[in-house]
Design goal:
The complex is a heterodimer of chains A (234) and B (247).
Chain A lengths: L1 H16 L8 H27 L4 H16 L2 H13 L9 H26 L3 H9 L4 H31 L11 H9 L9 H35 L1
Helix pairs in contact in A: 1-2, 1-8, 1-9, 2-3, 2-5, 2-7, 2-8, 3-5, 4-5, 5-7, 6-7, 7-9, 8-9
Chain B lengths: L3 H40 L4 H16 L2 H11 L6 H9 L2 H10 L4 H28 L3 H9 L4 H31 L11 H12 L2 H31 L9
Helix pairs in contact in B: 1-2, 1-6, 1-8, 1-9, 2-6, 3-6, 6-8, 7-8, 8-10, 9-10
Classes of the chains: A mainly alpha (234), B mainly alpha (247).
Chain lengths: 234, 247
């Protein structure tokens, strides 16, 4: 028991920021990966949201298919698919597992965020957009300057919540060996049979790190959005 | 690219894996729902003593990634026991032998561990969704039942719970489909479900592009099938009177 605790404490820095050869890694990389994918995914989702409202049926259907396909397959499978095609040079991104993992998380995040963006946009009063158009704004300007910023306020809690989900889901990039928290746990335990007694403590520690981070993020989001809505109402 | 030969070989290559994925999906989906309903109910209980263990259950199993939970139950838990006891308890007894004979999983305990991890994770998510549903039930409905002479328990069980399930069912469906996709995580602990079989075939034939596309189509079909079935359940729950108006 004391040995287990020592093992976890000895490796705590590795779990938090990665093993020395692969920094940033560990929990830090899990956070960076999911925050980055959330941000880039949002840009894609805004484009997809606009495409879903396009006057051309073909564009609308492409956006719809994008969401259905990405949301319909396991994230693990999506990782392998992206890595296969990215490594094959089809997307011109070469074979780095890190880039494949990041690209997959961007696609995954954007598909979920597209639905959030669409429902957020629906919550914007029509008259606001119509007034902007009457005052001479082009459809693109009315979308980017009026509809999107107002919708964003409605979307924000769901978008940030999606970020927490993404953080937890990012654990599956271990299949590509990207050195985030789950992979670091594997590296630290290694294939040494002598480390078998430390499995329980190490995975409890990893679970605790995911738990504490996710709960803290959720709490911060809840606090910020309640104060933000208070501001809007006031 | 997807030719007749490939299509003919699918049942023998992926039939067993697909069956295991479906079995895991149904088993863990039903178990999760059965656990989530009472957990959501207790979450709304007025007594603090009843509420906090339930809050802990929901928050812990929702916020630790399903993959970590599955690896913990499969690989870490058995190491707590000395070698001989571990062998008897997890890998060499009548229960796991019988399970292995039925499912064809080489290490049946890992199948159980994966099912446990998925059920804990999904039930915690469903409990949170159902709690939202139950909270959205107008207070007057419960008060009406109470004023007609129903006890607290009866009002809870026959008004709040069913109305809450109805209100939350679309979100419940989404989560159950998510759980189906999560069964692929069982591949990490040597459960030969669909995703693990696909990986095995890729290693064997190096035909990654085609196999990955076939796998994607199979999962999309499963997701579509679940969407259709769960929409039928949803319509049934809402009753014939409240079907969406047509035309």
């Amino acid at each position: 028991m004391a040995d287990s605790l020592d093992f976890v404490l000895d490796n705590l820095v590795n779990l938090l920021i990665g093993v020395p050869a692969q920094r940033p890694g560990g929990l830090l990389l899990s956070i960076l990966l999911s925050a980055g994918a959330l941000a880039v995914g949002f840009v894609v989702a805004v484009a997809m949201g606009a495409a879903a409202a396009s006057p051309w049926a073909a564009v609308r259907w492409t956006a719809r298919a994008y969401v259905i396909v990405i949301r319909g397959v396991p994230l693990l499978l999506l990782l392998l698919i992206v890595h296969q095609f990215a490594a094959g040079g089809l997307l011109g991104v070469g074979g780095s597992t890190f880039r494949s993992a990041f690209l997959t998380l961007v696609l995954y995040a954007s598909a979920y965020q597209t639905d959030i963006v669409l429902s957020g946009l629906r919550a914007v009063p029509r008259t606001l957009v119509e007034d902007a158009r009457l005052l001479g704004a082009s459809p693109a300007r009315a979308y980017l300057l009026i509809r999107l910023p107002y919708g964003l306020r409605v979307m924000r809690p769901a978008l940030l919540g999606q970020g927490v989900t993404l953080f937890k889901d990012s654990s599956v990039v271990v299949i590509l060996g990207v050195a985030e928290l789950t992979t670091t746990a594997r590296i630290v335990l290694g294939s040494d049979v002598a480390n078998t007694p430390f499995w329980v403590a190490t995975y409890l520690a990893v679970g605790a790190l995911y738990f504490l981070t996710a709960v803290t993020l959720s709490w911060l989001i809840e606090r910020r959005t309640t104060s933000a809505t208070g501001l809007v109402a006031g | 690219m997807i030719d007749a030969e490939l299509l003919r070989s699918l049942p023998s290559t992926f039939g067993a894996g697909l069956a295991l994925t479906v079995a895991l999906t149904v088993l863990t989906g039903v178990a999760s729902f059965a656990v989530a309903v009472p957990v959501a109910g207790l979450r709304l209980a007025s007594s603090r003593r009843l509420r906090w263990p339930v809050v802990a259950y929901i928050e812990v199993f929702r916020n630790v990634p399903a993959l970590i939970q599955i690896i913990f139950w499969a690989f870490a838990l058995p190491t707590l026991f000395p070698m001989q006891i571990r062998q008897r308890l997890f890998f060499d007894n009548a229960v796991v032998d019988a399970l292995g004979a039925v499912t064809g999983i080489p290490l049946p305990y890992y199948g159980l561990a994966a099912a446990l991890g998925l059920t804990l994770n999904t039930s915690a998510h469903l409990a949170e969704i159902l709690r939202g549903g139950m909270q959205s039930v107008p207070r007057q409905h419960v008060d009406a039942a109470r004023s007609l002479g129903a006890g607290r328990r009866a009002a809870f069980l026959s008004v709040l719970v069913p109305a809450g399930i109805r209100a939350a069912f679309p979100a419940v469906s989404t989560r159950l489909i998510h759980n189906m996709k999560n069964t692929a995580l069982a591949s990490f602990v040597a459960v030969p479900e669909l995703f693990s079989r696909v990986q095995g075939e890729i290693t064997r034939t190096f035909d990654a592009t085609r196999l990955l596309l076939v796998a994607a189509v199979m999962y999309l079909l499963l997701a579509w099938l679940m969407t259709v079935l769960l929409a039928a359940v949803d319509a049934r729950l809402r009753g014939p009177g409240s079907e969406p108006a047509r035309g």
